[in-house]
Structures are given as C-alpha cells and as structure tokens.
Amino acid sequence: MDQMVLKTQQWLNGIYKDNSNYKIIPEDGATGWTTITALTTALQIELGISTPNGSFGPATRSAFENLSIDSQPQNDWSESAIISYQHKIFILQGALFCKGYNPGGFTGTFGTNTEAAIKQLQTDAGLSNANGVVDSILMKALLSMDAFQMLTYGEYKDKCDQKIRTIQQYLNKNYISNTSFSIDIGLVPCNGIYDRSTNKALIYALQIEEGISTPNGVFGPSTKSKCPVLSLGSTKTKFIYLLQFALYCNGKEFDPNGFDGGYGNGVKNAVTKFQSFCGLNADGIAGSQTFASLLVSTGDNTRKGTACDCSTTITDAIAATLKSNKYEVVGRYLTGKFRMTSSELKIIFDNGLRVIPIFEVGGYKLSYFSYEQGVFDADSAIFAAAQLGFTKDTIIYFAVDFDALDSDVTSNVLPYFKAISEKFTNANSIYKIGIYAPRNVCSRVQNAGYSCSSFVCDMSTGFSGNLGYPLPKDWAFDQISTVTLHGNADIEIDNNISSGKNPGVNSVVPVDILGALNDNSFAKLFGVEFSTPDAEIEIFNNAFVKIAIGAAVKAALGDDSKVIKFKGGEFDGADIQTPLDNLKASLNKDNIELSTILAKAKDMELSIKTSTNGTSLKIELENSFNVPEHDTFSLSETLSIEFRVDKDKLLEDLKLATSSVVDFVKENPAIGVIICIAVVAAILLALPETALGAAIISAFSEAIEAISAVIAIA
C-alpha cells in the first residue's frame, strides 16, 4: 500500500463525495484506473466541465490552463477561485504520487519540490525543455496509466528495452511536444515497451515529415502515397531515423545497427531481412510497402495473396474462379454451419487447390475461452479432422476471433490452448496445433509452446493485439483484406499472404466409419446396420423392456475405472470377485457352468455400467474399437437394456421383464451370450441391501438359468 496514494484517495472522497458526478472510490493505496479516473473527474469539476466523465478529452484540454510555480493565486482572486486553484494543485500532486514522483508532500501548494518532480517527469519523457510547467499535454499524460520510467519489475522486467525507450523519448522531443496536433496523440510512454501508442506516434512523426497538414497517427492512403523511397546512400535523415526506429520496433532481428539517420549497409541488410520475413520483394529498398508493413498490421492491403479463406462451399465453378485469380490454398471450417465436406474436399483437390482446416465455434467472444472448452474443442477438432481423412502433421488452426486484450490472453486464451495441447499429447494425435488470432495472441500462445503456426487476422487493424505488435515469428498466413473475386462464379474471400511455411493439405484419406461400425460385434450380431455414426437402432421394446444399440465417435482416451470390464471371457475387478464367486457357486448347484457360457464371448472387450432411478434399471454394454489403420479416435457401440418397473411391484415386474428378455433370446439365440453378460453385470453391480438390489439378484438369477439353456441348445 502506498500511503500517499491512500492520502490522495481519502482527499478525493472527502472533497467530492457530495458531487453527483463523482463516484466514491476504494481507499486501498493502490494506483489504478479507478484512482486516475477519479482524479480526472475532480479536475473536470474544478474546470467547470458541464458533464465530468473522467476522460481527458478535447473539452478538458481546452479548459485547462498551465500550472507552474509562477501560477500562484493573486490578491484579487475570490475565495472560491483560490480554493479551486488549491484543489487543482492537490490533484496534480496526487497524480504525481500515482505516477511515482514525489512532489514533496500533499499540500495544495505548487512549490519547488512540486516543480522538481515535474521537471523530472519532463526529462524522463524526453522533452528538451524541462521547465516545470504543466501544460495540457503533460497533464493528460499524468492522468493516465502510462509510465515514463523503465519498468524493471514483475512481468515487465523482460519486456523493457532501453533502445525502445530511446525511440519513445526521441518521438516526444521532436514531434509530440512541438506541434499543435500533439494533444490528440499525447506523450508517448517512455517505459521501454513497444506498444500501440509508440506505433501511432511513429506514424504521426512520418506524417509530419511527409508534410501532411493534419497528422493523426493513422496510416491511410495519403500517408502511403507520400512515403519516401529510401535506399543505400539516401540522405533524408529524418525519414531514415523513423525507418530505423520502425525496424527495431518490429524485432531485434531487424536491428539496423544503431540510430544515426544514415542509410548504410546495416539499414539495407535489416530492410532486406524484414522484407523477406514479411513476404515482400527483398531488395533492400524501403518504399511505401515496406513502411506500411512496418507500421500497420495489414501492410499494403492492396497486395494480392495466394491463400484465402471463406465460409462459402467450394464448387467446381468457384474453384475455377480461385485458380484463375492465382489462389493456391483455401481455408475452410472443420465444424459448424459452414463446415467442409468430403465431396467438397474432392472438388478442391481435383482442381489443383490445397486446403487449410480452421476450427471455430464460439471463438468470437472472451467468455467462450476456458480450459474446459479447450478440452471439448480438442476432441471435436480431432474427430472432425479424422472423419474427413486429414493425415499426419496436418495443422488445425483454432480461432480467437475477437479483440483480446493482453490480460484476456493470460486469463482465458492461454488456459484454453493449454488444454488443447494436453489433449493432443494425451491422445497421441497425429495433428498439430495452429492458431488464428491477432498478432499478440498468436505470439503469446506460440511462446507458451501451445502452437506451431500462426494464421494472423491482421485485417482487424483496430484490434489491440495487432496495433503495436510485430508479426509473429511463426506466421504462415496473414489475412489482410476482404475482396470479391470474379470468374466462373463470383465469391467473397479473405485475401491472405502466405509465408510458404505451411503449403496446405493436398489430399486426404477418408475413414469408412459406417463400414467399421457395421462390421463389428453388436450390429453384426443383431443383423442391423447403422445409417449414420451417431444413430440409435431400437431392437426390442415392450411395456417392461427396451433394447437398443447406439453408436458414437469418441476420443481414443478415457478413464473407465468406475465400470466393470469384461475381457477374454471374464469379468475383471477385485471389488466384484466375491459376488461373482457367490453367483457361480449358486448356479453350479443347478449344473450351470457360468464360465463356460461367458467364454463364448472371449473375443469381446466390453465396459459395462448400470444405473437406476428407483423405477427402472438400465444396463449399458460399450464395445469400443479403433478404426483400422487410424488410431486418432475410436468408435463405440453401446447396447442398452432398460428394465421398467413399478417400485411397489419390484419383484413381479422384474420377473415379467426378464421373462420378456428370455423369450426374445429364444427367438434370437445368437445374442444370448451378450444378454447373459448384461444380466450378470447387473447382479454384480446391484446393491443387495436395497429392495431393488435384492429383486435384481432374485429375478436375474432365474433369467441366467433360462438363457443358459437356450445357449446350450444353440
């Protein structure tokens, strides 16, 4: 807790608590936006702003008058004017404390200590005239969370760079503090971290050098058209300084070997390397395309890419349009409303195109992302890719399609990708993880080791994760514009630049899921066929019993430790050994050899569970198996037998139910062993101390005797 920040908060609440425009703030001694907003609101109240809102905008700027050691109250001032002036100084001193500068006390008087603190701030900001005068630009900087000293603690320790700070101070000194438009940009933080404010200030400086009448820090058509062409030996010193700054801000690997305003071999080599990295013509000459790629996420958004993505199903006509427009790769969705199909993939490949699989369900909002969602999405993506036949090392791009703040990445996005990474590892997935997201999100997920390839949504230039962040080192696709293509069939696409790191997929090996399902035990045994992988087939249904077979695609993972296993003709599990021995002994009295009956199913491996709700008993036998030559996922059939009983007539209803099952087995003796396994499992899992448990044991023991007779005859 900072005692002077606490004192500031207490003063604010005490002075302005009765003003309807002021909101009481926590008195916790912690600097944050809550305290800064309260200070700004207080200043606006003192300036007579009609609707104080805590945001330092044009009205606040216009109403603000310079504060300095010479701006003391005069003899002819009214008492209210003197009090208001003192309040402004309190606000100024409180802001200094919040910023980490010591004005010598919280006094309401602009003395030498306050002046010294202002001069230190001006020096830290790189201003050439550290005169101790607080103008509107400096006051706006004070009433922000921007830092003007190197951040060398906590999470910032490894992010700060003295050369970046030098750039920031240079921009403040030479551009921000010397032009009438600078208030709209504001002082650049001098914390050694390249961010959107530094990026915007570089564009602002470029516009000033270009002679643009109203520089605004936005790289538009006019800024692009006025960009100089710089090459080895160029003498446009101020432009070269900005080029050198922009190169370094895009990564230390593009360090021009110093900031000297000269276009030597160091600058040429850095420009060439950057151009090659971004997919530009690597000639070492910095023109409008190079400046655009350095300063705005899309770069030159009129560039023609060779990759695209779309929500439209690719037909032969559309494929012809893509080919005639020189596109080679198309991104399509794995799941959802706009998912690709096997027939579409055939069209894509037959037309000489390649495909990029993209996974997006709800990735357009923060609340979607969590560890749990990552687990689910990993399974979904693996299943979808496997069903379509994508082969080993295919990269699946998981989408983060919203303006994710850096804190959002920490709290939600990283846990989401951590879950995906763990799932892929645990499943021995043949696929790789990519990410579709803004620059910062891509880089952070890659740096965490959760992805191997980035598909960058740079077209969203306003995203906080794009502006002021370099292109990710592992970028494969850079989405820069939306265009409509004309040809055999018109289509709107997102135009993407390809780095060549991921050529896309040019073939798949479709998996015959239905064939695998219908060729396995339950379906074959009952003489039925599944029409879809998630179908349910009803085999038998009357008032007391329902028998059905269901199928599902699932991960080749899972913990079945809470269910009984049946393998090699025997039940497995130490906790069921005693009741199993008792059951065998009971049946042996009637000359029924249970082990002999169960051995008829020695090639079957099942997971069996039962569930009751007091009026019914459901037995489920799950038969899982891998698809031949494809171990990414497994298939499962579930045979369910549901006994419906009246709780007041447990034994009577169960006897009627089991009698129905016995009659069904007599008509279909081939399934006798399966039914026998089910009822034995129900006995083993029943709770003898309950009425239902006792009824199950009694009724089902009789059923086993009857079924065994049928099996013996068969």
From TrEMBL:
Domain Rv2525c-like glycoside hydrolase-like positions: 321-497
SUPFAM superfamilies recorded: (Trans)glycosidases, PGBD-like
Domain Peptidoglycan binding-like: 91-142, 242-294
Any Pfam family matching the protein: Rv2525c_GlyHyd-like
Gene3D superfamilies noted in UniProt: Glycosidases, PGBD-like superfamily/PGBD
Name of this protein: DUF1906 domain-containing protein
Organism name: Clostridium diolis
Origin organism lineage: Bacteria, Bacillati, Bacillota, Clostridia, Eubacteriales
